[in-house]
Amino acid sequence: MQFGTLAIPGKAALAPMAGFTDAACRRLAARHGAAYTISEMVSAKAITFGDKKSLRLLWRGEDAGGAPYGVQLFGSEPGTMAAAARMIAKYPFDFFDLNMGCPAPKITSSGAGSRLLCEPRRCGELVRAVAAASDGRPVTVKMRAGWDAQSITAPEAAKYCEEAGAAAIVVHARTRQQMYEPGIDLGVIRAVKQAVGIPVLGNGDIAEAPDAVRMMAETGCDGVMIGRAALGDPWLFERVNAALAGAPIPPPPTLRQKMEAMRRQVYEMCEEKGEWAAMPQARSQTLHYMKGLRGAAALRRACCGLRHFDEIDALIEQVYESQRGDG
After folding, report:
1. Is 102 one of the annotated active-site residues of the chain?
2. Which H or E element spans position 310?
């Protein structure tokens, strides 16, 4: 798969998720086969104001895990988006990604995120502005199906984006009104794929490898993007990659492998951000490793009480103790 001149070594990417896909999370996904990763969304306007917190979100990390890395911008003004793109051109990343899918009211109230799908032409204008300021880097777009059931505008918006220079489109096949429930509409992904000639990836409801196989088979999309299901389970990329290649699906990770991965992820978060900043975020990350474990409710409470890195080992011992009956 190609995003312009950028070769993408796979078909399953990690979705950008605010508060989760920091450098440590992205690196972990890449180590387990994510085709590419993207930063947490960053406000273009905040960048132009010189906001240091926003700039820190762009940090690639000393090791990106071997996968291409993109920076996701959000905003609604072409001039501001272009200015932000020029300001961050010095940072080491491989492509720009434009957020046209976030459903959060604080984002849509400014006309950004999924609100842009109410004005398909503006979607193209934003792509054109960033492409002109991208210093040759490809520009991709992540969008939703539309604002609501009466305005499924993704195919039209995708056409404008392609005409403006977009190198790929990712479609989360829900409307903004649906947020994250109910199930996705594969027909929207199919319609976008039929509307454009650039790569199209489908996003939403991929919990296991067969979900990815079904999405690609029924929509003709070129790849998939995986979000929440990969948190605490980066091995999902290995299973999806194997299924898409028609190879035997690897077994699920052992409990020890999961705990070692969790500990390493939190350690890297602390190394890169400092314990004070990393541990509140680590609480949310560790919660996902508790999925499916015996006594998960008590384990989640322990996760929410984490304050220092050295408490991770006590949490892991609590996990082992609670699972001893399972061998």
Report:
1. yes
2. none
Instruction: Cite the DSSP H helix spans in 2-60.
Output: 23-31, 44-48, 52-56
pLDDT of residue 326 exceeding 70: no
The catalytically annotated residue of 102, 123, 270, 303 is: 102
Q: What's the CA gap between 254 and 68, in Å, rounded? A: 28
* pLDDT(220) > 90: yes
| pLDDT tops 60 at residue 327 | no
The H or E element that residue 2 is part of is strand 2-3
pTM above 0.70, yes or no: yes
Q: Which residues, other chains included, contact 185 with Cβ-Cβ below 8 Å and sequence gap of 6+? A: 145, 173, 174
Between β-strands 2-3 and 168-175, what pairing exists: parallel, antiparallel or unpaired? unpaired
DSSP letters spanning 101-162: ----HHHHTTT-GGGGGG-HHHHHHHHHHHHHTSTT--EEEEEEEESSTT---HHHHHHHHH
Instruction: Report how far residue 307's alpha carbon sits from residue 314's, in angstroms, rounded to the nearest whole number.
Output: 12
| Euclidean distance between CA atoms 47 and 106, whole angstroms | 17
Q: Round to whole Å and give the CA distance between 104 and 112.
A: 10
Burial class (CB in 10 A: 0-12, 13-18, 19+), 181: exposed
Residues 88-99: what's their mean pLDDT?
Answer: 95
Q: Which of 134, 219, 131 is nearest to 171 (CA)?
A: 219
Neighbours of 124 (CB within 10 A): 23
How does residue 98 score in pLDDT terms, banded at 50, 70 and 90? very high
In this prediction, residues 190-210 reach a mean pLDDT of 97
Q: How large is the average pLDDT for residues 293-309?
A: 95
24 and 57 Cβ atoms separated by less than 8 Å: no
Rounded to an integer, what distance in angstroms lies between the CA atom of residue 253 and that of residue 233?
Answer: 8
d(CA 300, CA 286): 8
